[in-house]
Amino acid sequence: MAGFWGKRKREQEAAQAAQDADLARRAEQALVAADERIRTAGDELAFAEAELGVSLTKDLKAALDSVKTHLREAFQLHQLNHDEIPDTDEELRTRNARIVQLCEWAEDLLDEKTGALADAVTRVRQAPQIIEQVRRDAEALSSRIPQTRATIERLSSRYAESAMHQISASADEAEQLIAFATHGADVSERRRAARQNEEANLALETATEATRRAGALMDAVEDFEIEALRAESTLAEVVADSRGDIVAARNAPNVPAVASAVADLEKALDALTPTGSRNDPFAELTQLRAANTALDDAIAKAHYRAQNPLPSIAQVQHALDDADRQLGVARGLISGHRGWIGADARTRFAEAERLRIDVPEMIASEETREQALAASRRVAQLAAEALQLAQRDIDSARPQQQAPGWGGDGWGGGRRGGGGDIMGGIMGGLVIGSILDGIFD
After folding, report:
1. Is the pTM of this model over 0.70?
2. Fewer beta carbons below 10 Å: N end or C end of the chain?
3. Secondary structure of the chain: what % helix, strand, coil (to 5)?
4. Which residues, listed in sequence order, are joined to residue 279 by a DSSP beta bridge?
5. Averaged in consecutive runs of 10 residues, what is the pLDDT profile of the chain (441 residues)?
């Protein structure tokens, strides 16, 4: 048996030695590859600075400096592996793993930063083609200016200035952007000829963005006409729906909120621009929708209130008073037996006190009075549960065989403890409170 275990141990040691040798080879290969990647990245940085300028290549330069700093650590670790001082297998293993980690991080970082510059370098090398495309785009956009002006003029005769302010200056702004794009293309060419590549790139980027914005402005004019027609169609539907709602409101409960909402909707209908006049369909649709929705909400609330009468302030206050009484009883019992009360009773009591804080602020408003009543009843329920749980904890904490003073002669003439009498009186008070609360409901 000893020979078997010895053979197994030798096999494990041989496997570990093979793994360590493989890790050492990987560390040496990673060092060589990372050092070569640094030299390549340095050449790429030099070319990129010549083509893009210093500002656009600062991230790659910072990454290269950081990689050089950390790779010095990798070389130092590799040197420690080959100095005259003997090392344990664990020390060699740790150093080689760290070398591999540093080299892989260095290559990944340099690949990320050089890749980010690839698109910029491509654009620079394609600058002549991009400049030519900017000029073609500017020419095509310029040909659309007269049509855009005509569209704006035609729409201005139909829609009010409040609607037209979105697009009234679009043709002029687009024309300015086109001129700026053409100028930017010229500047980019001159700067590139003067080998001021950074300024040339910036001018080309702004020229390209200017043509994009000019096209978007003119597209918005065409989109406006479509959206305005759609708004007019929707407005006609909302007008018809609003008039039907006003008629239906006659059968709704006669309450001030419904009457006020009807008046507001009628005012919104009267404020609509007469047929044949310039209007703002977007603003009118927004106003009419708001008034229509307000009437629907008022009618819905009136029907709900008719089926669910609002509790009076006195009723809610009575429910809150009952909750306070039950809270007071629970508070007294828990405070008097702190060492015996468990988490369940304490949790319900704390939740009851938390809910109680917000109730007074909700009583006056009709919008929250029902919530106040429900919260008051919930407080009372939680307080009652806390009281029952507290009494259970007290009973379970008392000894089964009670000494004199706990038993018959002390608290109840032969009955267990007297806790039942106390609890009976407390619960009787709570039942009476709930009955009185029911009278007021």
Report:
1. no
2. N
3. 85, 0, 15
4. 159
5. 59 75 87 87 79 74 88 86 78 88 89 78 78 94 95 93 92 95 92 79 90 95 92 92 91 89 93 89 93 92 83 91 93 87 92 93 89 94 93 82 43 40 46 43 46
